[in-house]
């Protein structure tokens, strides 16, 4: 629970999130004006950040992290990070920070060095924002197409097919995803839901991305893909294995089945093999340890590298290309697992299991795997969830795991709309 906001009562604790009404108004005004925007709250931080791209779209880019300006990356599951031309396959979308609200400052400001026309747009937006007495009714970009709820029978069959393929030796593990469509509650507010998620899950990366023609996504993910801090410390994690957290249970007291232990070990080995491919031997490995993510527990191992010591300045981009999609959202070996899912899953994952996050903000880059997320539609929300499948998987258990993962968002969705 955040020290600044109580999501159960909707009341402020100590101090509200900086200029909370202004923050909400900025989201609504950006949506009303047809601008792309991203709001997020990093793990263990109290304050949110917001950037607005005044172009009304998002550029397709190759994610060369060392070359990108300050902004926000949003990539689908099927993004091809090896294609030199980002237009060839589903590419990474990049939002420029024309207007930026950084959590510690609590003020929306134009970026430095904006072209005259863009600066005029920014100033006009800020003037209009100051005149807003209250946020407008919730509005957000809608996706041009969508899927519905995955039938339970279809998902059970997919898991059974996966187990059979694993036992044949086709691959060691895969991750079966599904969707769940629910009605948005009366009184739903985009900004309120985002702030409630931030308060409810302080250790998650909470995000809201809205792009005209692409849609609106919101979520609270526990999984770091890659992170580079201002001290040039690179980090990635192996996160796998899931169990429901019982009331009062401490993570340190969790007992894991062999299936989850092996599943997490596969993800760790995959990361180590990626590091070996680029001849990185100097890294710190901590874990596995049990961590709490909302009402769930996971096994996590952290891998940290000092970029100043390894003299590998473009390691973040190289590792991004090697890791995505991670074995925690696709499978092992990656190629046969991905091919199986493309044939049998019958689901367009879209931005689920892709990645997203701020780039070069305060000299740091933080990209997360887009899990525990939903796509907002006109009157409904489409939730996405997946479960790791091994030779020992039970189809009914895996279905229940995806139900538990969806519930982490639904609990807050209904609470925020009361």
Automatic annotation (TrEMBL):
Name of the protein described by the UniProt record: isochorismate synthase
GO molecular function: isochorismate synthase activity
Family designation: Belongs to the isochorismate synthase family.
Residues annotated as domain Chorismate-utilising enzyme C-terminal: 152-405
Coiled coil spans: none
InterPro entries documented for this protein: ADC_synthase (IPR005801), Chorismate_C (IPR015890), IsoChor_synthase (IPR004561)
Catalytic reactions of this protein: chorismate = isochorismate
E.C. no: 5.4.4.2
Keywords: Isomerase
């Amino acid at each position: 629970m955040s020290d600044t906001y109580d999501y159960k009562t909707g009341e402020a604790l100590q101090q509200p999130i900086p200029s909370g009404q202004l923050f909400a108004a900025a989201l609504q005004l950006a949506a009303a004006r047809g601008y792309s925007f991203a709001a997020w709250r990093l793990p263990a931080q109290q304050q949110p950040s917001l950037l607005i791209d005044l172009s009304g779209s998002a550029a397709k880019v190759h994610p060369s992290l060392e070359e990108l300006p300050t902004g926000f990356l949003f990539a689908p599951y099927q993004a091809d990070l090896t294609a030199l031309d980002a237009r060839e396959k589903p590419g990474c979308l990049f939002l420029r920070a024309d207007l930026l609200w950084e959590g510690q400052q609590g003020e929306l400001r134009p970026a430095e060095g904006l072209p005259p026309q863009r600066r005029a747009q920014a100033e006009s937006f800020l003037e209009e924002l100051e005149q807003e007495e209250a946020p407008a009714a919730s509005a957000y970009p809608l996706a041009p197409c969508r899927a519905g709820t995955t039938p339970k029978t279809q998902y059970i069959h997919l898991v059974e097919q996966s187990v059979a393929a694993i036992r044949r030796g086709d691959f060691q593990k895969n991750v079966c995803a599904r969707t769940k469509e629910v009605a948005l509650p009366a009184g739903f507010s985009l900004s309120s839901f985002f702030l409630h998620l931030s308060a409810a899950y302080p250790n998650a990366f909470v995000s809201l991305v809205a792009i005209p023609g692409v849609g609106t996504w919101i979520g609270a993910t526990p999984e770091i893909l890659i992170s580079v801090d201002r001290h040039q410390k690179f980090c990635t994690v192996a996160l796998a294995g899931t169990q429901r957290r019982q009331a009062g249970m401490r993570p340190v007291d969790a007992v894991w089945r062999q299936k989850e232990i092996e599943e997490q070990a596969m993800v760790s080995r995959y990361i180590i093999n990626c590091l070996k491919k680029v001849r990185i031997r100097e890294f710190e490995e901590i874990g596995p340890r049990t961590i709490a993510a909302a009402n769930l527990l996971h096994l996590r191992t952290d891998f940290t590298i000092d970029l100043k010591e390894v003299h590998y300045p473009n390691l973040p981009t190289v590792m991004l290309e090697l890791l995505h999609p991670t074995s925690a959202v696709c499978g092992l070996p990656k190629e046969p697992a991905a091919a199986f899912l493309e044939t049998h899953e019958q689901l367009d994952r879209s931005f689920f299991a892709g990645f997203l996050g701020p780039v070069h903000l305060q000299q740091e880059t933080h990209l997360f795997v887009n899990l525990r997320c939903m796509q907002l539609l006109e009157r409904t929300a489409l939730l996405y969830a997946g479960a790791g499948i091994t030779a020992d998987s039970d189809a009914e258990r895996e279905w229940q795991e995806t139900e538990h993962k969806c519930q982490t968002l639904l609990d807050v969705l209904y609470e925020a709309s009361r």
